[in-house]
Amino acid sequence: MKFSTTRERPVIICIDDDVQLLETLEFLLSKNFPTHRIVACMNGQDAIEQIQECKVAGREVQLVLSDQVMPDLTGIEVLSRVPDLYPDAVRIILTGQAGLQSAIDAIKLGIEDYLEKPISELELVKTIRNHLSNYLLKQDNKRLQEFVKQSHLRTSEITDLAFRSFNYHLTRLLTNEGDRREVVESIRKARENINLLSHLYKINQAMARGASFVSITPEELVQDAITYVRGRTDRGILVEKHQEVKVQSFETGTELTGNRAVMRIVLERVLENACKFSPEGSVHTVTVRGPQFMTSPDRASHMLQPDLIDLLRRSFIILSVTDAGSPTPEDFQNLLYVQDWQQPSSEQTPTLKGLGLVIAQEYLLIMGGHLFVDAKVGTRGTTVHIAFPIDARGQNH
User: Fold this and answer.
1) Alpha carbons 9 and 291: distance in angstroms, whole number
2) Taking Cα atoms as reference points, which of 200, 61, 103, 147 lies closest to residue 394?
3) Measured CA distances, 26 to 133, 181, 289 (Å)
4) Where are the domains of the chain?
5) Cα distance between residue 132 and residue 70, in whole Å
6) Alpha-carbon span 370 to 364, nearest angstrom
7) Arch. (CATH architecture) of 11-119
8) Model pTM?
């Protein structure tokens, strides 16, 4: 299967049995809405078939503009069937034979607008543009609500895992089990878990308050994460361990669309993990790759695994974080654990492995992203590849 690096344009359908007027509408809409595909239909039945074909093909019909009086079906009859396939699509009647009853019927069906011919190009375009803006706002709001819902579910699972581990370590601390080193490590892990969960809670609260989706370049996202890991007062782990992060980018011009805070926390978790398991004075590398990278397929083929190359072809941005650590057998098992993480078991003495990367991976799943780990026991340099869909708003990719 081949994947295009660009998404198919959303669809506007216009319907009128007057051939000359239909051609004029098609021309005006194509000129004023170049980001949309304009489908012109001469009768209601043809329009319904086109809408059905769009549904089967997975195209997004955003607006249907229909004449009212036509030989086979009225505009209201056509528009009344649209919600069966596209419940959120904007529906507009454009008629030269306005009547009170048809206007009442349109209102009862929830049709968004009822326009009378003749209408100026400026007024028609302005009306459609306003309705499309409202449509996109509603879609973003629905995505955000679903994102918040899914993130709360994932957070609940992670929280359960973290607190079970916390209780386990706390029990060992209170019963003086193990030597002093184990007790100190238990306290450190408990503190780390609480900090991670606190940060996660703040992110969910921000989304619940209606945090909006934004567009951001991958390079800006990387700088956001580095600023956090460095610490706004230069007291973060990068400074404490005298480490640095170098950024190299093979991507220009492409932006990610999604919740900025959530995308940032994914990269933060991976960067902090790299800092923790690398020696002092290490230099980490963040490499940014996107569809532009594939313009040099020979370079891509020997630098990335096939799964990552496939994602680049499917409109993903890949941020690869390479640290300076040498994973021990236990570290390596933890990395495998992250990639295969499932619901925590019912063991009485659970262990918590790689919580930071678990959080990163779970949020990536919500956004439709992926996480891959390249590591070998005892080999210096572990790389975590973060694949963000260019449209990271929680859709299916």
Assistant:
1) 18
2) 147
3) 20, 75, 39
4) 11-119, 212-392
5) 25
6) 6
7) 3-Layer(aba) Sandwich (3.40)
8) 0.56
In the numeric block, the tokens 């607190």 are attached to: 163
Looking up tokens 């019963």, which residue turns up? 175
CATH number of 212-392: 3.30.565.10
Can you tell me the distance from the alpha carbon of 360 to that of 339, in angstroms, rounded to the nearest whole number?
11
pLDDT tens digits for the chain (397 residues)? 222 333 578 999 999 999 999 999 999 999 999 889 999 999 999 999 999 999 999 899 999 999 988 888 988 899 999 999 999 999 998 887 656 566 677 777 788 888 888 889 999 999 999 999 888 878 876 766 666 566 555 556 656 655 665 566 566 666 665 555 665 665 666 666 666 666 666 666 665 555 567 889 999 999 999 988 887 556 678 888 889 999 998 876 788 888 888 888 889 888 888 888 888 999 999 999 887 776 665 554 456 778 888 888 878 899 999 998 877 766 665 565 455 444 334 443 334 445 567 667 777 877 888 888 887 777 788 888 999 998 887 644 3
**Residue tagged 């779970």 (tokens):** 362
- Convert the pLDDT of each residue in 103-125 to its tens digit: 677 777 788 888 888 889 999 99
Confirm if 51 and 78 have CB atoms less than 8 A apart: no
CA geometry: angle 154, 254, 230, nearest 5 deg: 60
Amino acid at 75: G
249-284 pLDDT per residue, tens? 887 678 888 888 888 888 988 888 888 888 899 999
Intra-chain end-to-end CA distance of the chain, in Å: 14
Q: How far apart are CA 139 and CA 147, in angstroms?
A: 12
Question: What is d(CA 142, CA 38) in angstroms, rounded to the nearest whole number?
Answer: 25
Could you tell me whether strands 90-95 and 113-116 are parallel, antiparallel, or unpaired per DSSP bridges?
A: parallel
Q: Nearest Cα to 216, choosing from 338, 53, 354, 391?
A: 391
